[in-house]
Design a protein that fits this description.
This protein is mostly helical and 204 residues long. It has helices at residues 2-20, 75-79, 99-112, 114-117, 141-145, 148-157, 171-188, 197-200.
């Protein structure tokens, strides 16, 4: 008989625990067996603080602070412009344009650019299937004629409906993406004369 009482007791506790207080409103804080870090003292963004003299929780950035990955002194590398302030042609001299660099650009391109510009950079990314704008075809004469510095500026700050990616790609990666885009453009506009004579016969 004792077990019957125990079973009945647990059934009552289970039923009340699962259904007994559903829909009821309480002004008391909930019981938390393991509160973890759900509730803790903290400052809310743009909140007030009695600790600081100006009463603000947000603190101004100290003078002279430089964001990580920002390289000072190489305008071509960090802005895409030459000493005259014009968009620079070519890649910064500090970069090694090799296979590894272009593969890095391919990786970054596939992550950030493919959804709009497509795998081939022809502007046929997946967003076009949902009617989301008309991404640029990077094989058009307009983009083929642009300097590398102008492309860098567009990636950094965005243009028209294109978002800015300066906060997502460090300068070296932006140049790597441009190198890969140049490779894609070259692949779609190559001529037979571009192929070494020893290999031209293989294309016929």
């Amino acid at each position: 008989m004792r077990y019957v009482y125990l079973v009945a007791f647990f059934l009552v506790v289970l039923t009340v625990g699962a259904l007994g207080f559903r829909g009821s409103i309480s002004t008391k804080p909930p019981l938390e067996v393991f509160p973890d870090m759900d509730r803790q003292s903290k400052y809310q963004p743009q909140g007030e603080s009695a600790f600081f003299a100006d009463g603000r929780a947000d603190r101004p950035i100290p003078a002279g602070t430089v964001a990580r990955e920002i390289i000072i002194g190489d305008a071509h590398l960090t802005t895409g412009r030459n000493a005259d302030g014009e968009f620079a042609a070519g890649f910064p001299a500090s970069l090694d344009i090799d296979e590894a660099f272009i593969l890095r650009g391919q990786e970054r391109y596939n992550i950030y650019c493919t959804p709009c510009h497509g795998t081939l950079a022809d502007g046929r990314g997946i967003v076009t299937q949902y009617g989301w704008g008309t991404p640029a075809n990077l094989h058009s004469d307009t983009f083929r004629a642009q300097t590398e510095g102008e492309l860098f500026n567009t990636i950094t700050h965005g243009k028209n409906t294109m978002f800015a990616y300066g906060d997502k790609l460090v300068p070296e990666d932006r140049w790597a993406v441009i190198a890969y885009v140049r490779a894609l453009q070259r692949s779609q506009n190559g001529r037979l004369s571009d192929v070494p004579a020893a290999y031209q016969a293989e294309l016929n």
